[in-house]
Design goal:
alpha+beta, 7-stranded antiparallel sheet, 5-stranded mixed sheet, 25 helices, 36% helix, globular, binds 2-(butylsulfanyl)adenosine
């Protein structure tokens, strides 16, 4: 092999710089500037040069990120500076922050009149601790924490993580160890699991396990296929670099070297500042694109840190302040079936009560039969339960090693557990249904509850307990029966005081005059939700016109397709539904005829098709859809060439990628609101 001439050396160096700059823009700043095709060309050119001239293949070359060397086992590494852990404040409420502040002040011998202390408040990333050792600016070693003194050498694997620079920007210090956390973002975790599933491989339980498993691989080619990220939070061994005087400046400096440092960090003053940070992060925790299990407070001045020193293996100047865990382990006591308003039978796991996500959870939905099979949940199993924010608790996975020998498999019964009618499952549906219709007392109860609910007829006081009583006592069979109730009947019910009976009757009375949209929604027609009911009411103006419409006429309503049209036609073809409606009208239920709302064809929303993805911060999904429709826009469920705008909230799904690929204009929530307000 020939030694490379000067011009080739220069070209290789230039390619390396350009590729690293692209990596940095892409993986650290999240702002790719170079098209992928261009990047691929640069990469291939560099690979070719390195194949021709072996000496070009320097350890910091971006071509060395792909992995490949297979290890028999991971070597151990003696940490030059121990990797410490931090104390955890056990009080989950505000007192956690207050206690830490008083502890620090006491240790420093400060009295009440001394100035408040400056702290750095950071996120506590839920991943895997990592020490990156740079010598002369080059990444020479990456090691796990291990027992704090001795860790595992995972250099080859960590080199495949694109956001970790192989060479620091502007620093050639003799030794610089950067400490931080390797993690996997939610989006990357979902994609990885999707890939695992489609390859028939086992899926990962959570992002932390996926990240830890990927880092500790013996085959770095496997690590290279797992999308990992990194945030720096401190330093280890340092030689030949002047350390600034505060931790916040240290993090700023690390960021300037091209290493990712999370932006959600803040210098705060005193206990009040810590409390505010803990609360602020607590409110956005569920929207972060990665898992955190708390926040970390650190005394900002390195001089004060030194003065405070260590207590055994933990610094006195730092503490972790956790949030309630979002995942817990518990056992499945039973799998019960819940009958919904439309007869859908939902298997629900009854759990040994467990405190998770800030509440005690006793149930978790299993959605349908397929889901029970997919997760292989059995009665008696030990399971991981997750509850994040206001989301309904769910079973993430089972722990197979803890399955008792007598664990019981769930089977969808052939008969409804409430009314014994046949259970049917249509070929193209995941749901099993009770075929009993309103013969099934449970469906009748649910239908009545829906009829009386706030967004339907809004009968305050008609909750599930009272509805159970009314149905079980045979006083109410159809919605019209509600309007036949009187004080005498109600007084005969258990635990029904005179005052609440009078209140209920007044609420029933008030509901007699309603809007057509509410009335249509309250009927519980399949596939007709609140906004479709509003569309129908707006279009037809009166109930008789709606009842007379055939499928073709119904599909003239914006956004009503064949499925909804079919449901509506079927509903009004059913004699017992017509009887109920007639009965309701006889009982004096009336609704204002609605004047069609004028739509301004000049509005930029008029005639445009919108698709929504992700979570919007201020607008509920329903509200956003309604406001778009009110302005004459359409809302569709999937992205196509006909889509005018994709509205993306946080954590957008695959629709986002598709919209980008098709060149559809992407709006954020503010962008949507601006269009609606024009
Ligand atoms: S500082 C001497 N800061 O939490 C202080 N640790 O026991 C060293 N962690 O496993 C740790 N986020 O990997 C620090 N912003 C952060 C952190 C953080 C996550 C992890 C760390 C270690 C544990 C601390």
């Amino acid at each position: 092999m020939k030694a490379a001439p000067e011009s080739v050396l220069a070209r290789a160096a230039q390619l390396r710089r350009e590729i690293e700059q692209h990596n940095y823009n892409y993986y650290v700043l999240d702002r790719p500037l170079t098209p992928d095709a261009e990047y691929d060309r640069l990469f291939r050119e560099l690979e070719e040069l390195e194949q021709l001239h072996a000496e070009l293949s320097t350890p910091d070359s971006p071509t060395r990120r792909v992995g490949g060397q297979l290890l028999a086992q991971l070597d151990t590494v003696q940490h030059a500076a121990p990797m410490l852990s931090i104390r955890t404040e056990t009080d989950i409420d505000d007192t956690g922050a207050e206690k830490f502040d008083s502890y620090v002040r006491r240790e420093l011998g400060l009295d009440g009149s001394a100035a408040p202390i400056e702290y750095m408040a950071e996120l506590k990333f839920d991943g895997l601790a990592m020490s990156l050792r740079y010598e002369g600016g080059l990444l020479v070693q990456a090691a796990t924490r291990g027992n704090g003194e001795v860790g595992e050498n995972v250099t080859q694997n960590v080199r495949t993580i694109h956001c970790i620079p192989l060479r620091l920007q502007g620093v050639t210090a003799e030794v610089l160890e950067i400490r931080g956390e390797i993690y996997m973002s939610h989006g990357d975790f979902e994609k990885l699991n999707e890939r695992q599933r489609s390859n028939g491989d086992k899926t990962f339980v959570n992002p932390r396990n996926a990240a830890a498993g990927a880092v500790r691989q013996l085959d770095s080619a496997i690590t290279a296929q797992r999308p990992l990220s990194f945030f720096a939070y401190g330093l280890g061994d340092v030689r030949g670099w002047t350390v600034p005087t505060s931790h916040s400046e240290v993090l700023d400096a690390i960021g300037r070297m091209g290493v990712p440092v999370n932006a959600q960090r803040k210098v705060v003053v005193g206990a009040a500042g810590l409390v505010a940070f803990h609360r602020d992060i607590g409110t956005v925790r569920d929207q972060l694109p990665f898992d955190i299990d708390g926040v970390v407070y650190k005394v900002n001045s390195l001089r004060l840190q030194y003065q405070l020193g260590f207590r055994t293996r933990e610094p006195r100047w730092a503490v972790a302040h956790k949030y309630p865990p979002q995942e817990e382990i518990t056992t499945v006591l039973d799998i019960e079936l819940h009958v919904g308003r439309t007869g859908v039978l939902t298997p629900t796991a009854r759990l040994q009560p467990v405190f998770v996500g800030g509440v005690t959870v006793t149930n978790a939905t299993l959605h349908n039969e397929d889901e029970v099979r997919r997760k292989d949940v059995r009665i008696g199993d030990t399971v991981i339960v997750r509850r994040a924010g206001d989301v309904i608790p769910e079973i993430v996975s089972i722990l197979p090693e803890r399955r008792p020998a007598d664990a019981l498999e769930f089977r969808m019964p052939e008969q409804c557990p409430v009314c014994q009618s046949a259970v049917i499952r249509l070929a193209d549906e995941a749901a099993s249904r009770c075929s009993g219709g309103l013969v099934c007392p449970e469906q009748r109860k649910q239908a009545l509850l829906h009829f009386a609910s706030r967004r339907a007829m809004d009968i305050e006081g008609m909750g599930d307990k009272l509805t159970d009583q009314l149905v079980d006592a045979g006083m109410v069979r159809t919605p019209a029966d509600i309007y036949k109730l009187d004080l005498l009947k109600l007084a005969s019910l258990d635990r029904m005081g005179e005052k609440s009976a009078a209140n209920l009757l007044a609420a029933i009375e008030r509901s007699r005059n309603t809007t057509l949209a509410r009335f249509v929604f309250s009927l519980g027609i399949r596939n007709v939700g609140e906004s479709t009911a509003q569309d129908l009411a707006r279009y037809f103006g009166g109930l008789d016109q709606l009842m007379a419409a055939d499928a073709t006429a119904l599909q003239q309503v914006p956004d009503v397709g064949p499925v909804v049209a079919e449901s509506v036609v079927r509903f009004f073809a059913e004699p017992h539904n017509l009887a109920v409606i007639k009965d309701l009208r006889n009982e004096g239920v009336t609704f204002s005829e609605v004047a069609p709302r004028p739509v301004n064809p000049e509005s930029p929303v008029f005639g445009k098709t919108f698709v929504l993805t992700g979570t919007l911060e201020n607008l509920a999904r329903d509200d956003a859809q309604r406001r778009i429709r009110d302005k004459g826009g359409k809302v569709s469920g999937s992205v196509s060439k006909k889509t005018s705008y994709l509205v993306a909230g946080t954590d957008p799904g695959s629709k986002f990628d598709k919209a980008q690929a098709l060149g559809v204009t992407i709006l954020d929530e503010a962008g949507l609101l601006a269009l609606l307000d024009q």
